[in-house]
Amino acid sequence: MPIKPEKMIKYLKQMGFVEVSRHIHKGTSHIYFKNFKTGLSTEVPMHKGKELRKGTQNKILKEAGLKHVFK
């Protein structure tokens, strides 16, 4: 089930990730996160009014070393 990027960001922060940078271009942005304990990093795309696609969600979670099913 697709989720909003804000929910993914909240989850990443709960799991110990912190925002390290943000790239903004023409109304879209990509926020880069890193967990300094594990050394893993990932990015979350923020596109106006769009939810994350399932494949994007899975990629973010895999890069972050997390497994979670959003409801």
TrEMBL record:
One Pfam family recorded for the sequence: HicA_toxin
Entry keyword set: Endonuclease, Hydrolase, Nuclease, RNA-binding, Stress response, Toxin-antitoxin system
Family: Belongs to the HicA mRNA interferase family.
Source organism per UniProt: Lactobacillus hamsteri DSM 5661 = JCM 6256
Protein name according to UniProt: Uncharacterized protein
Alphabetical list of InterPro entries matching this protein: HicA_mRNA_interferase, HicA_sf
Xref: SUPFAM superfamilies: YcfA/nrd intein domain
Residue ranges that the Swiss-Prot or TrEMBL entry lists as coiled coil: none
One MF annotation (Gene Ontology) recorded for this entry: endonuclease activity
